[in-house]
Specification:
The protein is of the alpha+beta class and about 220 residues long. It has a single domain, classed as Alpha-Beta Plaits, CATH 3.30.70. About 30% of the residues lie in helices and about 40% in strands. It is built from six helices and eight strands, in the order E-H-E-E-H-H-E-E-H-E-E-H-H-E. Strand 6 and strand 7 form a beta hairpin. It is globular, with a radius of gyration of 17 Å. The two termini are about 15 Å apart.
Length: about 220
């Protein structure tokens, strides 16, 4: 595992009132993220993305050593702060989803520099299909997609807080990769036709990196 990645992840999807967009991005990059990376032991890195296909508009991911970092006194203190910027912007957040995850699988090699694009896939599955779903994902689906040129790595997570329960993140060079024959063949590989109809509450969104900070 890369030292810039951990077993825990906070993912926050949100839209923002367009009138507050510039102020929102400044607050996120200069206040919100630095507080967590610089002041909370166990936070490793954070990345922010702008949606290029799908919604919501923004995605922020925070790498943590473990999900339990959010139970630390330092994180609780940071989360309770009510700065002027926070109080001003919070009412303008729209369609916000905040989930906490534990990593359960990874394949491929993270790029030395943050990948420019991220495919984020959130899915649910009925409990009776969980074993089949995870076997297909880990044994067939992720390895096939990581084998496509321009896809660096993929990681799968299970929610310890929030829904739907599963998240897959794919680091890639360009969203145009998903228009290639190689991608189409890979995404349909193996037991896909059997498993895909079982998906619940699916969200498939493509994002472009706009900010990154590491401890």
């Amino acid at each position: 595992m890369s030292k810039e990645r951990g077993n825990g992840l906070i993912s926050v999807w949100t839209d923002i009132n367009p009138a507050m967009d510039e102020e929102f991005n400044t607050w996120y990059n200069e206040e919100h993220i630095p507080e967590r990376i610089n002041e909370v032991q166990g936070f490793i890195a954070a990345r922010r993305y702008l949606c290029v296909d799908g919604h919501p508009t923004y995605l922020a991911v925070y790498e943590m050593e473990e999900p339990s970092v959010i139970q630390s006194d330092a994180y609780k203190e940071i989360s309770s702060r009510e700065s002027e910027g926070t109080l001003k912007l919070r009412p303008h957040f729209l369609n916000t989803v905040r989930n906490i995850y534990q990593e359960i699988f990874e394949a491929g090699t993270p790029p030395q520099q943050d990948a420019e694009y991220l495919l984020a896939v959130r899915l649910g599955i009925a409990p009776e299909h969980d074993e089949l779903f995870n076997a297909w994902y880990d044994e067939e689906h992720v390895p096939a997609l990581v084998g496509v040129e321009g896809v660096h790595c993929a990681r799968r997570f299970k929610a310890v807080e929030g829904a739907p329960p599963y998240l897959a993140l794919y680091d890639m060079d360009s969203p145009e990769i998903m228009e290639t024959d190689a991608w189409e063949e890979a995404r349909n590989y193996g037991r896909t036709e059997e498993v895909r109809p079982l998906f619940q509450d699916a969200h498939i969104d493509t994002y472009k990196l706009i900010f990154s900070m590491k401890r």
